[in-house]
Amino acid sequence: MILWLIVALVGLYLMAPVLVVIATSFTATAYPVFPPQGFTWRWFGEVLASPEYLAAMRFSTALAAASTAIATVLGTLAALGLVRGRFRGQTAISALFLSPIFFPAIVLGLALLIFFNWVGLAGTFPGMVAAHAVLTTPFVIRMVSASLAEFDPAVEEAAKNLGASAMRTFFLVTLPLIRPGVVAGAVFAFIISFDELVVSLFLAGPGMQTLPIRIFTSLEYSSRPSVSAVSTLLILVWLVVGVPLYRRFLDVRHT
Amino acid sequence: MTTYDLEMQGLRKIYGDSVAVDAVTLSLGKGEMVALLGPSGCGKTTTLRMVAGFVEPSAGRILLDGRDITHVPANQRDTGMVFQSYALFPHMTVRRNVAFGLRCRHLPEDEVRRRTAEAIELVGLGSFEERYPRQLSGGQQQRVALARVLVLRPKLLLFDEPLSNLDAKLRVQMRQEIRRLQKDVGITALFVTHDQDEASSIADRIAVMNAGRIEQAGTPAEIYNEPATRFVADFIGTSNLIDGVAETSGDGRMTFRADAGGVFAARGRASTGARGALCIRPEKVDICPPGVAGAREGIVRRTARTAGMMEYVVVLTDGPELTVQEQLRHGIAPREDGALVGVVLREEDTQFLVG
Ligand SMILES: Nc1ncnc2c1ncn2[C@@H]1O[C@H](COP(=O)(O)OP(=O)(O)O)[C@@H](O)[C@H]1O
Ligand SMILES: [Mg+2]
């Protein structure tokens, strides 16, 4: 009973921000307040009618999709090399590949800005994609490494022994078996990229607004409940897209 | 035209500064099943994996049906390997597991279907075609692994301790089944195991390995009755090993002086003064009342009863100790501790081993 109460309290504590945001997006006042006063759909209408918000959503989706594609391919290949390969300094290289996870985002943003200025990628879409891929590849490596470490390498040898080429072995045996890790890595990469603010702020060129940048800047100038409405929409999207993916690929294996 | 299917010539594998496999030379005749037998870590798996193409030899050659395959990639060697962990594809049904190799060979779909069904039938899994490996017992998974390689009719079958994950009863049953299948299809096979019973019951010949080397290769009876080295005598069955030196020798017969005392006649060749040991199997020693002509005398020191058998340690009056086994029959009372007994050692059952 006590345990149940503790779980409920911790749950409430963790969920509170989400609940507050959802609640305030229905307030009838002209600024976000909690508890909300009155009820209106108006802010959702405002968001969906706002060219800035829609453009930012499209931009963030494109950015996340492109960087996720790159991160998934690079991360999967890197994980294969790190787990299956036998070479000197493997542990050190492994740690190096995962290090962007632990760098402060602000340091990465600054470093990328300086570097991209030098190579002429600063303020460009490809630059943003590359930067986001740097941020998200380590997550793919982690996820794929975990599923690689889990399966018996003899299975790959068996495929070779039965006459399969390296390509055939990879696509018919290895990839299906690490698919949960690859998909989980890709979902993570997408979420992280979509949510990323700091590095994007450093690198975004004029007219390049990601959704987090858009939300951030609209809070700077005016504070309207439409910010809450956009956040509620985001939560809704994750409930519809993220949760089924999570259940399919992170919970149950090989069904 | 070669009479051998598989020839390993001077195979070596060196990891860093340790030698895993040291100059292994072994030939397998057509249709022959040879067991590679030895203690854990002696290099059996490494040898097998060199033949399969998963380990690059440091030196030596591998010939399959007369063709040098030493540097041929694993997927072009035409060997069929059954792994200790079975290594089935967990995301494929039994049918797709078995069809995998045929599909790699781009055979027509109706041939793939027919041969797959035949192979699954051959191992008695006809009603399990659509199951996934995790829905099968260990023994059934083992059969799928067998069907998966047999369906390809490879030139060579390779087994790496395939039965070690099964329970004792199933292990004995699968042994016989593997042997029957192998003889039916007539494919040459190399079978790695650390279990001497398994090796003796499954193989035509046994190659005993120790520390990266093959110490002796021969039929199970040869290995047991005429061990070539002290290691083989000790590893296969139980042996009395009595240390000493050779005295006179000639004509394959010799006399031997034990360090503990006593002179013995034995089979073997050695120059006078060569150090070595006599190998005597406990069940080949006869125990009799004291005073029988030609028998040595000794005192029973320890007795132990096993199923249907008594085992004694007899200290010979000459000095050495012998473990002796005696079948328990009606009317024979077990010997008492401390009893004086006669012991008959036949020259043909007493073998000199150098080292
Ligand atoms: N990849 C490897 N790297 C280093 N040493 C190895 C490797 N594989 C095997 N060995 C060593 O080679 C020896 C023989 O191993 P193995 O062939 O697996 O023996 P067995 O199968 O007879 O138990 C062992 O000492 C083992 O530690
Ligand atoms: Mg082994």
Characterize the structure shown:
The complex is a heterodimer of chains A (255) and B (355). With 255 residues, chain A is mainly α. Chain A has a domain at 52-221: MetI-like fold (Orthogonal Bundle). Chain A has helices spanning 2-24, 42-49, 51-84, 90-98, 105-119, 125-150, 154-161, 166-195, 198-203, 211-221, 226-251. In chain A, helix 1 crosses helix 11 (226-251), helix 6 packs across helix 8 and helix 8 packs antiparallel against helix 11 (226-251). The mean pLDDT of chain A is 88. The longest helix of chain B is centred in the middle third of the chain and has 18 residues, at 168-185. Chain B is elongated and about 80 Å long. Chain A binds chain B through residues 151-152, 154-155, 157-165, 168, 172-173, 176-177, 254, and chain B through 52-54, 73-77, 79-81, 83-85, 87-91, 100-101, 104-105, 148-149, 152. Bound molecules: adenosine-5'-diphosphate (ADP) and magnesium ion (MG). The site of magnesium ion has 2 residues of chain B, from helix 1. Magnesium ion binds at residues 44-45 of chain B.
Give me the secondary-structure category of chain B: alpha+beta
**Per CATH, what is the topology of the domain at 52-221 in chain A?**
MetI-like fold
Q: Architecture of the domain at 52-221 in chain A in CATH?
A: Orthogonal Bundle
Radius of gyration of chain B: 25 Å
Annotation field: number of helices of chain B: 8
Quaternary structure state of the chains depicted: heterodimer
What is the rounded distance between the termini of chain B?
A: 39 Å
Which stretches of chain A are poorly predicted, pLDDT < 50 over at least 5 residues?
none
Computed over alpha carbons, the radius of gyration of chain A is 22 Å
- Largest sheet data of chain B: 6 strands, mixed
Tell me, rounded to a whole number, the average pLDDT of chain A: 88
Ligands bound, unique? adenosine-5'-diphosphate, magnesium ion
Order of helices and strands of chain B: EEEHEEEHHHEHEHEEHHEEEEEEEEEE
Helix content of chain B: 10-25%
Sequence stretches where pLDDT stays below 50 over 5 or more residues of chain B: none
